[in-house]
Design a protein that fits this description.
Elements (H helix, E strand, L loop, with lengths): L2 H11 L12 E4 L9 E4 L4 H9 L4 E4 L16 H11 L3 E4 L2 H4 L6 H8 L3 E9 L3 E9 L3 H10 L13 E9 L16 E13 L3 H9 L8 E6 L4 E16 L1 H12 L5 E2 L7 E10 L4 H6 L4 E5 L14 E4 L2 H5 L2 H12 L5 E3 L12
Parallel strand pairs: 2-3, 2-15, 3-4, 12-13, 13-14
Antiparallel strand pairs: 1-4, 5-10, 6-8, 6-9, 7-8, 10-12, 11-14
Helix pairs in contact: 6-7
Bound molecules: zinc ion.
Zinc ion binds next to helix 10.
C-alpha cells in the first residue's frame, strides 16, 4: 500500500471538503508514492512521537492536529515546527492530518466520540455546516429514469438524514437538434427531435457531485447529458461543529461534572454555575469551541462542554447554562483511538498502532 492509498481512504471517511477553511488537512509532510510500512495514530505530532513511530517501524503518522498549520517560510530549525518538519523529512516519516474534517462528522467525529462516552441520546450537529450540499437535476429519456437514479445513488447521491435513495422526478417534453458533428443515440442530424423526458433530481454532497455526474453520464443515454448543478443554502444535518444530545438520566451539575471528569480523566474542570437544578440537554465541542457558545445557547442546553475558553467567555451564559472547559487535550484525547479503530478495521492485515505518548503540553499543579 502506498501513502496515497491511505490518504484516499481517509478522505473518503472524512472528506477534506468538510474541513474548515483555515485548516490544513491531508498529506502534510512526505511522499504520496512511498510504500507504507506501518501507521502510528496520534493526537499531536511531537519529536517523541516521531521517535516512537521509527522504533515501531511505522513510516506513517496519522495525526489529528496538523504539524504545519500556519505558513512555513524557512526550514532552518529556528523553531519547534521547523525542527519537527526537518526531523520527519530526514527520518522518512510521512505525516497525514485528519483535523476539522474529522471534527465535523456527526458519526465518528471527535465530539460524537465524547458524546458516546457520556452515553448521550438523540444526538445532532450543534452548528450544521452550510454550503456543502447541492441539487443535481438530470434530463433523460423517460425509459432511463430508473437507471439514472440508481447510478446517482450508487455514486453517493440521494441521502437525506437516515433516508437513502431519495429522488424527485418530473415528466416533460424535451427537444433537441443534433448538428453535423454530432453522433446522436436518438434522433437524426439536423432534425429536431421531440421526446418524452424525465428530470431526475437528487441531493448530493458537493464534494461528490463530479463523481455522480460521471456515473450518470456513464449510463449512456445521450451523447450530451443535460443537467443542472445547483448549490444549496440548506445546512448539512450530518456535517458541522459540535454535538447536541441528552443524558440518559438528568443529573445535578456536580454529579454531571463528576461523570465528565471520569470520562476524560482530568484533574481539574473549569465551569460556571447555572440556575438549572438538573443537567439533561448538553452541547459538546471537542477542541477550541468558544465560537459556538451562541449556538449552544440557541439549543437551550443546560451545559456546554468545550475547551480553550477565555475569562470573559464565562460571563456569557449568565446562569442560563453551565459553560465547562475540560481542556483541549482532554477533549480530544480519544481521537487516536478513533483513527486507529477505523484504520485497523479497514486494513486488518496492516500494522496500525496507537501512540502511547501523552502529548499534552499543559501540566496541572494540584
Ligand atoms: Zn484540537
Amino acid at each position: 500500500m502506498q501513502v496515497k492509498n491511505l490518504v484516499q481512504f481517509l478522505h473518503q471517511w472524512a472528506p477534506p471538503a468538510h474541513a474548515e477553511g483555515y485548516d490544513n488537512v491531508g498529506l502534510i509532510i512526505g511522499d504520496a508514492a512511498a510504500t507504507v510500512t506501518g501507521v502510528l495514530c496520534t493526537l499531536d505530532v511531537t519529536a517523541e512521537v516521531i521517535d516512537e513511530a521509527i522504533a515501531a517501524h511505522c513510516n506513517v503518522i496519522v495525526a489529528h492536529h496538523p504539524p504545519i498549520f500556519l505558513g512555513l517560510k524557512q526550514l532552518t530549525g529556528a523553531n519547534y515546527t521547523q525542527r519537527l518538519v526537518a526531523k520527519a523529512l530526514l527520518s522518512n516519516v510521512h505525516i497525514i492530518a485528519v483535523h476539522t474534517n474529522l471534527d465535523n462528522q456527526l458519526v465518528n467525529g471527535v465530539s460524537s466520540y465524547l458524546a458516546q462516552q457520556l452515553q448521550l441520546q438523540h444526538i445532532q450537529v450543534l452548528a450544521p455546516k452550510a454550503q456543502t450540499l447541492a441539487k443535481l437535476v438530470f434530463y433523460c429519456p423517460s425509459a432511463f429514469a430508473t437507471q439514472v437514479a440508481e447510478a446517482a445513488f450508487s455514486a453517493g447521491a440521494g441521502t437525506i438524514g437516515n433516508y437513502s435513495e431519495c429522488s424527485f422526478t418530473i415528466q416533460g417534453m424535451g427537444t433537441f437538434k443534433p448538428n453535423q458533428a454530432a453522433n446522436p443515440q436518438i434522433g437524426e442530424r439536423e432534425q429536431t427531435t421531440q421526446l418524452q423526458e424525465t428530470s431526475v433530481a437528487v441531493l448530493v454532497q458537493q464534494h461528490l457531485a463530479a463523481a455522480v455526474i460521471a456515473a450518470v453520464k456513464n449510463v449512456g443515454f445521450y451523447e450530451e447529458v443535460a443537467y443542472d448543478y445547483i448549490p444549496l443554502l440548506n445546512t448539512n444535518q450530518t456535517v458541522g461543529s459540535g454535538i447536541v444530545g441528552t443524558l440518559q438520566e438528568p443529573l445535578p451539575l456536580p454529579q454531571f461534572l463528576e461523570k465528565l471528569q471520569g470520562c476524560v480523566q482530568t484533574k481539574a474542570i473549569k465551569y460556571t454555575q447555572t440556575h438549572h437544578s438538573l443537567i439533561s440537554k448538553i452541547a459538546i465541542c471537542g477542541g477550541s469551541g468558544a465560537s459556538f457558545i451562541a449556538a449552544a445557547a440557541a439549543q437551550q442546553v443546560q451545559a456546554y462542554v468545550t475547551a480553550d475558553l477565555k475569562y470573559h467567555d464565562y460571563f456569557i451564559p449568565d446562569g442560563a447554562f453551565s459553560l465547562i472547559d475540560i481542556g483541549h487535550y482532554e477533549s480530544e484525547q480519544f481521537t487516536s483511538n478513533l483513527l486507529a479503530h477505523v484504520l485497523q478495521h479497514k486494513f486488518p492485515n496492516f500494522a496500525v498502532l496507537k501512540s502511547k505518548i501523552n502529548t499534552n503540553p499543559v501540566q496541572y499543579f494540584v
